[in-house]
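Customer escalation, tier 2.

The customer says the design service returned an amino acid string that "doesn't look like it belongs to this structure." They asked us to rerun it and document both sides in this ticket. The original structure tokens are below, unchanged.
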């Protein structure tokens, strides 16, 4: 089974038109992933390719349109390219020694401002001589670079080596979803309701990832439906370290879990794993400021078709309306697109982003912070609106302190 995109290092390939970005991607993957042509602007929308980059592991390459594209259509392509920065963990700037100019510096500035590690690939070394002055400047700035010829298929080993060396440390270390809250030799009970939106024959991704995280760290996992929880807990000779539930079953699970056993939800775990739990706790507290007629953005990473009592389009709007006591103006958004102007919204409520990498979720949190708009996620919103927020934050002392002190 392939690793999901959220577990892959996202490597964005950027540069001007006709520098060989697509050729470099094809060289790295040993496949014709992107169309290659001497005509500038062949790549339009970003092209994605999953692969294993050993010994690093699963990665996702994203080939982008030229940052110097022209015309009305070119502006739209550039906008698509700029959006890729939001989900890039490691950047690759493809250029050559002849055509280096302000466009490359603009990309460097974008990476630097976002604290994204990057490397430079000087392609077409079979055509252009080395620019010693430029190399000297890069060395002084401690910017990593390598030289290739996609046409001659040279420099591949050096490029792969530099990619491995430049991967961000937090990806290599691999943060834990919940195993650090449980510990080796201890147990967690995972409450998994089976409803209309549960995929037939399998569990949803956060549940699968949580089970694997526990197994990888020598912890036990017990998986039950919500109506079985009380009986299962009674069978434990030693209480489990943690109970985790789907947020939609919060009230029943909270009622059936003894107060001395910490309890939270998969969504809240992913607020920490994929984003910034403390920031999202502050965002959830802004629910108290909502008034009738306020605009709310509910954003979801997935693009699935909602069915029945969908959590993002039906349940959360209903719970929020009940909490506020009046109708809210709610916009629903799916996928990678995000409004440029979010300042009109009083709060942004996001899914757990299990299908994304952490970089993209952090980018959205940063945009919200810069716009002065509180942002939180599904699980925190549900816990807050149902009055069990403090209970759901019990496993996270720092986040709980923020809620209690309001700081």
């Amino acid at each position: 089974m392939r690793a999901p995109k959220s577990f892959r290092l996202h490597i964005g390939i950027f540069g001007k038109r006709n520098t060989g970005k697509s050729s470099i991607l094809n060289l790295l993957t040993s496949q014709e992933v992107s169309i290659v042509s001497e005509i500038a602007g062949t790549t339009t929308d970003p092209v994605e390719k999953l692969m294993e980059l050993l010994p690093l592991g699963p990665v996702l390459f994203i080939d982008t349109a030229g940052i110097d594209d022209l015309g009305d259509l070119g502006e739209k392509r550039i906008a698509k390219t700029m959006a890729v920065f939001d989900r890039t963990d490691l950047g690759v700037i493809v250029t050559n020694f002849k055509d280096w100019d302000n466009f490359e510096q603009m990309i460097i500035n974008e990476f630097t401002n976002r604290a994204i590690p990057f490397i430079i690939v000087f392609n077409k070394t079979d055509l252009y001589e080395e620019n010693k002055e430029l190399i000297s400047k890069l060395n002084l700035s401690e910017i990593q670079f390598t030289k290739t010829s996609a046409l001659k298929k040279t420099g591949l080993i050096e490029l792969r080596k530099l990619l491995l060396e430049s991967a961000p440390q937090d990806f290599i270390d691999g943060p834990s979803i919940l195993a650090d809250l449980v510990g080796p030799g201890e147990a967690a009970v995972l409450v998994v309701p089976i409803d209309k939106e549960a995929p037939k024959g399998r569990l949803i991704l956060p549940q699968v990832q949580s089970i694997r995280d526990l197994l990888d760290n020598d912890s036990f996992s017990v998986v039950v439906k919500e109506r079985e929880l009380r009986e299962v807990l009674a069978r434990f000779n030693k209480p489990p370290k943690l109970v985790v539930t789907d947020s939609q079953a919060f009230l029943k699970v909270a009622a059936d879990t003894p107060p001395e056993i910490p309890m939270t939800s998969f969504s809240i775990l992913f607020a920490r794993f994929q984003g910034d739990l403390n920031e999202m706790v502050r965002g959830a507290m802004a629910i108290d400021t909502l008034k009738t007629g306020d605009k709310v953005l509910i954003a979801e990473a997935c693009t699935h078709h909602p069915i029945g009592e969908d959590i993002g389009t039906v349940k959360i709007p209903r719970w929020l309306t009940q909490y506020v006591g009046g109708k809210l103006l709610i916009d629903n958004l799916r996928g990678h697109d995000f409004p440029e102007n979010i300042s009109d919204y009083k709060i942004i409520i996001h899914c757990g982003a299990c299908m994304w990498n952490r970089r993209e979720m952090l980018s959205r949190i940063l945009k919200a912070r810069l716009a002065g708009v509180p942002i939180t996620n599904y699980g925190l919103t549900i816990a807050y609106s149902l009055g069990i927020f403090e209970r759901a934050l019990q496993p996270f002392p720092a986040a709980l302190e923020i809620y209690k002190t309001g700081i």
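Tier 2 assessment: The sequence is consistent with the input. The chain has a mean pLDDT of 89. Residues 71-84 form the longest helix (14 residues). Sent an explanation to the customer and offered a walkthrough call.
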